[in-house]
């Protein structure tokens, strides 16, 4: 067990975050998503774009952790610091990708979760691996950091003349997006993804994460899907992912799993649908799996 201290912890944990982005990008086949063999439903990006984006964000991961470690104030004050740094990271990402948005949502989440990890790590004098209770403390701290975020960010939307797609979805359908997921303390990770990984971490890792991807596609509110296909497109993808999970499992053969997901990929490409929210959660799941020493 490695003792964490202010010198080695930010570097080590930021490496987990970079590994997580690279692992998600390399996982295949992912329906509608970019991987080394397919651009999914994305005409403007490929696997190399994701590598470039990940390397652009990597230096900021340590900075997010440092903000948490050195923070002496309210959770909301830490959020304001992290959001400002996160905007710098997003600018660096877009510069590297020539304006292509690969990891905007993932950067937002890693900014919150890494800074909260630094804060909890410092307050509790933690060691790696984290216990699941330590991870729960991170999620709870993010809830405190983001309390009231939706109301604050989406105040006065009805009077705005130009809305982002996230704002439009919230106004028209009540879709809360990644802000809402953060304000709730990441229930998709806490209640779905991480219990699954803790149960099956001894199984084949690729199979485990592909099944987890389907579980997330079947259950989460994915604003990426809704933006491309509307509520009906999102609902149909959820239904199909649910149906696949009735025939596929952690014990499915590699060929059975690959064949089913390749067909699903082809369908989503034809329909121009991409479950980017689920992809971000795969990366975050991998990160916490590494932090807890599951693999």
UniProtKB/TrEMBL annotation:
Q: What is its EC number?
A: 2.4.2.52
Q: Which reaction does it catalyse?
A: 3'-dephospho-CoA + ATP = 2'-(5''-triphospho-alpha-D-ribosyl)-3'-dephospho-CoA + adenine
Q: Which Gene3D superfamilies match?
A: Triphosphoribosyl-dephospho-CoA protein
Gene Ontology MF: a single term: triphosphoribosyl-dephospho-CoA synthase activity
InterPro entries assigned: CitG, TriPribosyl-deP-CoA_syn_CitG
Keyword entries, A-Z? ATP-binding, Nucleotide-binding, Transferase
| UniProt superkingdom | Bacteria
Q: Name one GO biological process term.
A: prosthetic group biosynthetic process
Q: What class of enzyme is it?
A: transferase
What does the similarity note say? Answer: Belongs to the CitG/MdcB family.
Q: Which NCBIfam families match?
A: citrate_citG
HAMAP family per record: CitG
This protein is called what?
A: Probable 2-(5''-triphosphoribosyl)-3'-dephosphocoenzyme-A synthase
């Amino acid at each position: 067990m490695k003792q964490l201290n202010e010198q080695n912890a930010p570097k080590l944990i930021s490496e987990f975050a970079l590994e997580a982005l690279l692992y998600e990008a390399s996982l295949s086949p992912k329906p509608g998503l970019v991987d080394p063999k397919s651009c999914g439903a994305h005409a403007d990006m490929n696997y190399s774009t994701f590598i470039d984006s990940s390397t652009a964000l990597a230096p900021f991961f340590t900075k997010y952790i440092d903000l948490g470690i050195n923070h002496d104030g309210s959770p909301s004050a830490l959020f304001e610091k992290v959001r400002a740094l996160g905007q710098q990271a997003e600018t660096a990402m877009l510069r590297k990708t020539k304006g292509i948005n690969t990891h905007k949502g993932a950067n937002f989440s890693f900014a919150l979760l890494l800074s909260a990890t630094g804060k909890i790590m410092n307050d509790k004098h933690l060691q790696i691996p984290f216990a699941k209770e330590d991870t729960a403390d991170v999620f709870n701290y993010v809830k405190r950091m983001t309390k009231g975020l939706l109301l604050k960010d989406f105040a006065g939307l009805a009077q705005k003349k130009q809305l982002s797609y996230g704002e439009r979805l919230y106004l028209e359908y009540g879709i809360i997006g990644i802000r809402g997921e953060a304000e709730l303390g990441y229930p998709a990770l806490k209640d779905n993804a991480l219990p699954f990984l803790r149960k099956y971490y001894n199984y084949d890792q690729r199979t485990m994460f592909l099944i987890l991807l389907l579980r997330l596609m079947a259950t989460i509110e994915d604003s990426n899907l809704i933006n491309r296909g509307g509520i009906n497109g999102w609902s149909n993808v959820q239904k199909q992912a649910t149906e696949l999970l009735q025939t596929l499992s952690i014990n499915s053969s590699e060929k059975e799993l690959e064949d089913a997901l390749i067909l699903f990929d082809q369908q989503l490409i034809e329909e121009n649908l991409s479950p980017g929210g689920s992809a971000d959660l795969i990366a975050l799941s991998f990160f916490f799996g590494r932090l807890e020493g599951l693999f």
